[in-house]
Amino acid sequence: MKGKTPMELPIYQVDAFASRVFTGNPAAVVPLERWLDDATLQGIALENNLSETAFLVKEDVGWRIRWFTPVCEVDLCGHATLASGHVVFAHLEPTRSEVTFASRSGPLTVTRDGELLRLDFPSRPPEPYEAPQGLIDALGRAPRGAWKARDVLCLYDSEVEVRALAPDFGRMRTFDAFAVMATANGSGCDFVSRFFAPRSGIDEDPVTGSAHCTLVPFWARRLGKPRLHALQVSARGGELFCEDRGARVWIAGRAVEYLQGTITV
Which letter, b or e, does each residue of 219-255 get, where b requires 16 or more Cβ atoms within 10 Å of its Cβ? Predict the structure, then answer.
């Protein structure tokens, strides 16, 4: 735009909940010296065209974080917070082993735990919910039962059923919920899941940390144990190591850096 001085901003792209590139969930992380206007933040997220872009600003104590999908700001995002923790530890403050991000969902801590990065997030246990027929039609297969917190949780009988789902995202966009998750007992882990959020610009999210704020308390009660090994069985796939800690959940995974560069806006 005429008269506007371009800004150069650092950008990192990190595959979260992944042990190698091209798996897990890619997130962009953009550290800022100060907050830009929301339209610019949203424009960067749209240009990145990833499920989430995280923006960080350093404060007196710790950092503040905000997350944007290509179409909207969200109140909580796990994989982009994990990616942001990686960027802080690897590039911004390499002597640290723990960082707390201020956010719309309260303080969120990322801790180095060996080769893992561990998120400390709020627990969002679900309540029983009667799934409307329109949602069942959109999923293409009726669940055994349904529950709801921020997102709707649909329980299936097997991992095979969850993997086989082929939702009608057009129909799902008419359903009034931020997102829908499908879950079942896992054949090689405690539970599996998939996460669909077409109303937020993400038909299927590869790996969803925030979903585990609901999945972890649900499965901890169902299986009678607090520590859980989870797989998100999207096309890219992701592995999560979780613990139910009452009002909080721990969600841990690996992070692999894919890209480091500069954007001009």
Answer: bbeeeeebebebbbbbebbbbbbbbbeeebbbbbbbb
pTM beyond 0.85, yes or no? yes
Q: Amino acid identity of 52?
A: E
Is the distance from CB of 88 to CB of 99 less than 8 angstroms? yes
The tokens for 64 are: 């503040």
Per the residue annotation, which of 33, 52, 204, 239 is the catalytic one? 52
Mean pLDDT within 223-233: 98
Interval 237-264 mean pLDDT: 98
52 is catalytic: yes
For residue 46, pLDDT over 70 is answered with yes
State mean pLDDT over 124-139. 95
